[in-house]
Design a protein that fits this description.
The protein is an alpha+beta fold. It has 25 helices and 16 strands. The longest helix has 33 residues. The chain starts with 6 loop residues before the first helix and ends with a helix.
Length: 588
């Protein structure tokens, strides 16, 4: 079993899903030599360092270090768990999922997820029918005041929780258990042990994942002066992580499939998103009032390269814009910003000035660095030397953070126009160490002090993995420690003993391979020409044999020093002398 699945089933799924074909749905690949290359979808870069090896069916980014097989690629690109990735790829390959009969925990997880999805689907339909069938309800009247049309209500499956009693009754009558509906986050239990609708009396917005499944809800109070919070949201669950989900992302994903998406407009609230869609701006998504995370940014990067930020025009919205710019730029997105004038949010702006004026506003968005440089200048008195100095420090720090040398020239001119300092002086200041972009942290220190031994082990394991050598037993003595290299050696040795074939891609199912780890280096080892390789293998074999002999000698020396018996000390001394002779022979 591998992660709860039969090994042969995972092998079937891998064999029937070509990693190159799969990746090409998300990124543009170009063949170079025997591999396919692209700009990495997981970090910001302009020169492609993301490589897919078709023969090994795995990928590696030489920039950020990410690597894996088709399962891990699906997990990262879609932000899904392993089980969901296997289900998606199995369906794509026309394979039936196994029954999980041999893994009780996997059975439990699968059943829990399926039940939760079903409960949320039933709940969304229940709420939506409530709204449609009760046009005089407070929730329906509220939407009328917001001028939301029936098409949008249907598209976003907006609903209404009319009271606290009906939903629990409906779900129990539909065959769900009490503990299941509570765990799904739609029903609670009060101090009198009575079930109640978690969102009682609210206007309901279903939250969909990228595949169009309901994974959560956001309930808005429709009271003029609500006693409780304005919004009540589903808590985290096995199928909902608010750090990954974006409102209306499922619609953007569909536009991408139809080749009708080249940019995204990011707004805050649900109603802002819906009213933008109602105005025909269907490439709008929402961050649902929470700060954009790196996971959000990566999901956006999967769809587009260009985004326009249009967050609320208040103090909180301004702070959120600054944070969002940093987050989005870090994954390589081109970010532009609009600052609404005369309205607090897109919904109000569209109602006041109309769709065409809002579209014009979006078209006149400005580059995010320009925005920050101009906006941050408002904090300082640029007529004073102290104010100028503080502003220049902040501005240069920001320019150095994201900009290429060519872009820096453009932005330095923006700063020069604001502070009237010579451009040469600003250029010189930008090259000072405090403004230089920090280099990536060095790889973690090697766990074994002698780096040459680690290198030799990596080379030998790579040669065994890629079947360049087959004498497994020769190295049994040097892979005895409880580290990841020894575990990989044992895995390969076991396969060889049982005459079982193995693929590089299958290694990712058995081992946790992190960027720049020792196993990552084994899998992505760059072999030299055969003549040089043979020489390197000979040298590495010699080094490992010496290392093993010296380790044995050190162990016997330690035992001799600790022994209280002359007979034992003499026996250990003999072993030490024998090992010394062998070591001297190997060194010759």
């Amino acid at each position: 079993m591998n992660k709860g699945f039969p090994s042969d089933f995972l092998e079937q799924v891998r064999n029937r899903n070509d990693i190159v074909d799969f990746a090409s749905r998300y990124i543009t690949l170009n063949r170079r030599g025997g591999n396919f290359w692209a700009c990495c979808p997981f970090h910001n870069e302009k020169t492609p360092s993301f490589s897919i090896k078709p023969d090994g069916q795995f990928y590696k980014c030489f920039g950020c270090g990410e690597s894996g097989n088709i399962f891990s690629l699906a997990m990262k690109l879609e932000n899904i768990d392993f089980i969901t990735a296997v289900e998606m790829l199995a369906k794509n390959a026309g394979l039936e999922m196994p029954s999980y009969a041999d893994n009780a925990e996997l059975q439990r997880q699968k059943k829990e997820r399926e039940t939760m999805f079903k409960i949320l689907k039933y709940t969304a339909e229940f709420y939506h029918n409530n709204l449609i069938n009760n046009p005089q309800s407070a929730q329906a009247k509220y939407l009328q005041t917001r001028l939301m049309n029936a098409e949008m209500i249907k598209k976003f499956q907006i609903g209404a929780s009319l009271n606290f009693e009906d939903l629990p009754k409906y779900l129990l009558k539909s065959g769900f258990k009490e503990e299941e509906i509570i765990k799904a986050g739609v029903v609670g239990k009060n101090e009198f042990n009575k079930l109640y609708d978690f969102y009682g009396g609210r206007l309901m917005f279903p939250i969909f994942n990228g595949f169009g499944d309901v994974v959560a809800f956001s309930g808005r109070s429709v009271d003029a002066n609500p006693e409780h919070a304005k919004y009540k949201n589903t808590p985290q669950s096995p199928i909902f992580n608010k750090s990954e989900i974006l409102f209306a992302y499922n619609f953007a994903r569909e536009l991408k499939k139809q080749h009708m998406l080249d940019s995204l407009v990011i707004v805050e609230g649900h109603i802002d998103v819906i009213m933008c869609h109602q105005a025909g701006i269907n490439n709008t998504i929402g961050c649902m009032g929470t700060a954009l995370t790196s996971l959000h940014a990566r999901k956006i990067k999967q769809l587009v390269d260009n985004v326009i930020l249009c967050l609320d025009a208040d103090g909180a919205g301004n702070a959120a814009t600054y944070k969002a710019i940093d987050t989005l730029k870090e994954v390589g997105l081109n970010v532009r910003v609009v600052r609404l004038v005369g309205a607090k949010d897109p919904d109000e702006y569209i109602k006041k000035f109309g769709k065409d004026k809002f579209v014009e506003f979006l078209e006149n968005s400005i580059d995010c660095v320009d925005f920050v440089l101009q906006d941050s200048a408002k904090k300082y008195n640029l007529n004073s030397n102290i104010g100028k100095n503080n502003y220049v420090n902040e501005a240069l720090n920001y320019i150095s953070k994201f900009s290429s040398p060519a872009e820096q020239e453009i932005y330095l001119k923006v700063v020069q126009n604001l502070v009237k300092i010579p451009l040469d002086a600003l250029r010189k200041s930008l090259t000072e160490p405090k403004y230089k972009i920090k280099e990536q942290e060095a790889e973690q220190a090697e766990s074994i002090k002698n780096k040459s031994i680690i290198d030799a082990k990596i080379l030998i394991l790579s040669a065994l993995l890629y079947k360049k050598i087959k004498n497994f037993e020769d190295f049994k003595g040097v892979f005895q420690s409880d580290d990841e290299l020894s575990k990989l050696y044992d895995y390969l040795l076991n396969k060889a003993k049982n005459n079982a074939d193995y693929s590089v891609s299958a290694i990712f199912d058995t081992f946790e391979i992190t960027p720049n780890s020792l196993l990552d280096k084994v899998i992505n080892y760059a072999f030299p020409e055969d003549n040089l390789l043979n020489s390197m293998l000979s040298d590495a074999t010699k080094r490992l044999k010496l290392f093993n002999l010296e380790q044995q000698k050190s162990n016997y020396t330690q035992l001799m020093m600790q022994s209280n018996s002359n007979e034992e000390r003499y026996k250990y001394l003999q072993k030490i002398q024998e090992l010394t002779v062998q070591i001297n022979k190997e060194k010759m």
